[in-house]
Design a protein that fits this description.
Length: 240
């Protein structure tokens, strides 16, 4: 894959190698960059879409956007930056120092599991839009058993203490231990699951997001680990 749209050579090389623009200009000036097989020493060359660019003999691939699946550990905040706490973006910053990554949707500081990190604002906006109803699935540990009445209430739409009525949600208590359950939400309201169980005077002791849309968290990712998504996986997120 080469350049996708018309772009300046020095910018393209800097982005693909994640190096400062000054370093990419230096590489170009030293004749270490080729465009379609020819050495090109002009940093302001406009690349045609699909141009093959090599630096130091290696072909460059600059992905337009990054999509990462992170298994958020407890105690890390779902933000790009924070003055006090480690953020989900801090966990991947070394690998993507020049990307403006942010979490698409939030998990509480105490919650764990699947956080999607991206720099594709339009994609994030789309999957978070209430009209899209992209589902989010959670494993939840309660301080009292979940009952069939709660499952019915979730299915109808729980009215929170402040009067807001939630969209219908799914609640599946575990057969062996109803203090453990799976909850599927189709919207994202601050502290939503805790507040929904709060209506029934039930406390949440643990909350772990296991899926976004049709994409499950990779079980091989330990807390704090992450990996890039394939194009097929990005597509699965949109399949609610
Ligand atoms: N609902 C909550 O209460 N907390 C989360 O982190 C996610 C959903």
């Amino acid at each position: 894959m080469g350049a996708e749209k018309k772009t300046r050579l020095d910018k393209y090389v800097a982005q693909a190698l994640e190096i400062p623009r000054s370093a990419s200009r230096e590489m170009i000036a030293k004749g270490r960059v080729t465009v379609n097989g020819q050495v090109c020493k002009k940093a302001d060359t406009q690349l045609e879409p699909g141009a093959d660019v090599c630096a130091g003999g290696r072909p460059l691939h600059h992905e337009a956007f990054v999509y990462l699946m992170l298994n958020k550990p407890e105690g890390v905040v779902s933000a790009a930056e924070d003055k006090r706490d480690t953020t989900v973006v801090d966990l991947v910053r070394d690998a993507y120092p020049r990307r403006a990554l942010f979490p698409a949707g939030r998990l509480d500081k105490t919650s764990t599991g699947f956080v999607l990190l991206t720099d594709d604002g339009a994609f994030a906006h789309d999957i978070l839009a209430p009209r899209r109803h992209v589902s989010k699935t959670y494993r939840v540990v309660l301080d009292a058993p979940a009952t069939p009445a709660m499952a019915e209430g979730f299915a109808k739409g729980v009215t929170l203490a402040d009067g807001q009525t939630m969209e219908p949600a799914e609640l599946y208590p575990d057969e062996q231990d109803p203090c453990r359950c799976t909850v599927v939400l189709h919207q994202g309201v601050y502290h939503q699951i805790k507040r929904m169980f709060g209506v029934y005077d039930v406390g949440v002791n643990g909350l772990h997001r296991t899926a976004i849309g049709g994409l499950a968290l990779d079980a091989a990712l330990a807390p704090g680990q992450w990996r890039a998504l394939t194009a097929e996986e990005v597509h699965k997120i949109q399949q609610r």
